[in-house]
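User:
Care to share a sequence and structure tokens?

Assistant:
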Amino acid sequence: MMRNNVPGLHRLWGFLAAAVVACVALGTPQQASAMITENIGISAIGMAMGNAITADPPGLDSIHFNPAGLARVKGRWKSENFLVAQATPRASFTKPEGFSIGGFTDDPVAGTSTGPVRGTVYLPGIGANAKLPVLAGATLAFSFSEPDSPLTFASGVYLTQAAMFDRSQDPNDSARFAGTKVVMQRMVYASPSVGYKHSDTLSFGVGIPIAHQALAMTLEMRTPNKFLGITGKMQEAWCGSGNNPLDAFGFGLCGGGPEGRINPFKRALTMQLDATNPMDPTINVGMLWEPKPWFAFGAVYQGGSDTKLTGRYRVHVDPMMRKFVEGMYASLLGPIAGAMTGIPSSIREEQTGNMSTTLPFVQRVQFGIKLKPNKKFQLNLDTSWDEGAKIDKVKIQFDQQIDMLKALRMFGHPDPSTATVPMGGQSRWSWGAGLQFMPTDRLTFRLGYEDRKSTFPLDQFSLTAPLPDMKSKSFGIGYVTKKNVHLNFTYSYTHGTFNVPAEGSCNMNCSDFFNVVYNPYAGLDVAGDMTIKYIGLLVAKPF
């Protein structure tokens, strides 16, 4: 049992402030992982045990994993996590036999691989500007309980969800069409929690994580669509290498000049988004049943949220589409064709304004058991479920009609003031296991394995969030000093691969006529992997 060592109560406020500063200024390794992750990097002990700690939540890690475990923490304690991580997402693109996008067969992305990736972090009030080769950071939690009280109060700071990639180091990186910069970050900056010891064998707990949610993205968009390819080939045939004197009496295919020649593999526009919600609370509820020294059962429910974000956007349109539209509407029959297809009479080079969107933060449950046949060995087994199916699509609402979106009416997109991106998330079960060996009362060795199922199946896969099914393998060591300082070190390696043949995912590489938003690698085979390397140090001690 943790000992009591009581300083002045005012120090609690100092620790809370320090926790917020540490997490915001330095970030955490979960920022190097991928979207819709959970439990990566929150706890060094959790990672070492395959995150199978619901039935034996260690110390202040209970705040997230099972707040009922706080009832076992007596006195005043603080816990600090020091973290370093590196994520390496990779993908390669192959042109299959018979590849053609409306007659265009030479995609410059084919035969290439993605380039270097740096981490980044979203700083509230500043934005996502940091560029880091690895991500290092620290988190902090603290607790308070009177020796004879059944209640333990605690709060902590941690990152509960993130996708953070910066691919701007190579301006020609073939992954830029899935996002030059992608940041989806949910940082819990306060988590007031309480554990209640109902009896010697049964405890309950509840916490209110209060989070800052951020979405920031820079996306170079191209639309390798068959209609655009056919249009480009018509230009080649009608206009030749220059202009056609009859074009002014036709549809204006040549009027945009060389810049207005359509190529489905060229960049069409660049979009930047930056939106936040500064305070979005959810709820954690847990129970812990320990009827025997050799057996325990734990369960936790972590509530979800339809998080409303507001912010700014910027759309910059490249000359190709702007010049094409100018030429078309300068001809005799072009305005008729434009009216029939929904193409606007002009496209502004730049549009900026306010935007809003809703990002689902899904609810999840986790169950676990602890088996301890003797003093030296302990086995933990956990299974978890999350409501990933709620992440069906993301709809962005703009404060005006976007010119480029007007042209999508012919593809069934009725409202040019909105952009809807299908996501195709799935609800899923995952599991993890952890083994502890305690040769002495002060020394502990840990091994962990976790089978992490992806929120997105391969037929909905996207390089914007390249997180396939992954396996996590971890090793950890813990030591308790004579002054009751708990030191825990962990190394973890998480890896997964994916292989999506052409037409395999209509969020990435479908070439159907109506698959416009968003298939930047239409018709290509896409394969790759994701690797996350993590080092964590947890220091817990009474204060």
